[in-house]
Amino acid sequence: MSYTKRFDGRKFDEIRKMEAKVGVIPRADGSATFKIGDTIATVAVYGPRSMFPRFLQNPEKGVLRCYYDMISFSVTERKRPGPSRRSTEINLVTEKSLLPVLDLTQFPNTAVDVYIQITQANAGTRCAGICAASLALAHAGIPMKDLVAAISVGKVSDKIIIDLDKKEEDHKEGATDIPLAFTGRGKQISLLQLDGEVTKDELIKAIELGRNGCEEILKVQKKALQDYYKGEIRWMEIILNP
Ligand code: ADP
């Protein structure tokens, strides 16, 4: 059987409704919230600050440390609190997806700590976390070459679609989930995971879909930064719209 109509009525290339805001946690050095459908990620950035334990210090540049957490009641069935193999994996891929745009050479021996809280989850949480983290790092004033936007694409039954929700990920005919991240202007892939099976042509099609989706996300991210700095800092507009 073919997947002819999406469960929530979206088009196959349609992303869920997005919202983004920066400066949501006053005490943090940088913060942002990114919402996509029912999935909500809030990020607080602290740093650059002295790195402890000291043996982890890098005398050449600051170290990015991401801490992803999905709170217990972010899903309908209570999730066991605390770190897991899944969160360890997501911390790692989040760091890898953000590092290509960051320049931490000005901050030797420091850490930039990025706390990602998923307060509500309906799939796509690692991507929402990356989108929010990228905004929070920009808000913290960390030197960045670009923003990073992320979205999951995939295959449900026989269709290549964007921004799978949980029901689609659990489709009885099988689903392949491909989280992707792209750097804003450079359009370079900084994250590509693949959970399932697709052919080469399907993967190329999925990446194209993800690339277009990330363009849309980038607009929402830029607007969030512009709204925050509206009227205050003109150069932010210049940086974002060169
Ligand atoms: P992502 O959230 O990045 O898509 P996964 O594919 O691992 O990452 O998870 C898909 C979705 O499954 C999550 O967004 C969440 O809705 C749900 N989920 C993940 N872990 C749990 C858990 N321990 N308990 C209940 N639901 C979970």
Describe what this molecule looks like in 3D.
With 242 residues, the chain is α+β, with helices and mostly antiparallel strands. 29% of the residues lie in helices and 29% in strands. It has five helices and nine strands. It has a five-stranded mixed β-sheet with strand order 1-2-3-5-4. A four-stranded antiparallel β-sheet has the order 7-6-8-9, with helices on both faces. Strand 1 and strand 2 (30-36) form a beta hairpin. Helix 4 (200-229) packs antiparallel against helix 5. The chain is globular, with a radius of gyration of 18 Å. It binds adenosine-5'-diphosphate. Adenosine-5'-diphosphate is lined by residues 75, 77, 79, 86, 121-126, 152, 166, 169, 177, 179. Adenosine-5'-diphosphate binds next to helix 2, helix 3 and strand 8.
Topology overview:
Elements: E1 18-22, E2 30-36, E3 39-50, E4 63-70, H1 85-98, E5 110-120, H2 125-139, E6 148-156, E7 159-162, H3 166-169, E8 175-183, E9 189-192, H4 200-229, H5 234-240
Parallel strand pairs: 4-5
Antiparallel strand pairs: 1-2, 2-3, 3-5, 6-7, 6-8, 8-9
Output the helix-strand order. EEEEHEHEEHEEHH
Task: Tell me which ligands are bound.
Answer: adenosine-5'-diphosphate
Spatial order of the strands in the main sheet? 1-2-3-5-4
User: What structural class results from the helix and strand content?
Assistant: alpha+beta
- Sheet bearing the most strands, described? 5 strands, mixed
Number of helices: 5
Q: How large a portion of the residues is in β-strands, by DSSP E? A: 25-35%
Taken from the alpha-carbon principal axes, the silhouette is: globular
Helical percentage: 25-40%
What is the averaged pLDDT score? Answer: 94
Straight-line distance between termini: 48 Å
Q: What radius of gyration results from the CA coordinates?
A: 18 Å
Number of strands: 9
Runs in which pLDDT lies below 50 for 5 or more consecutive residues are none
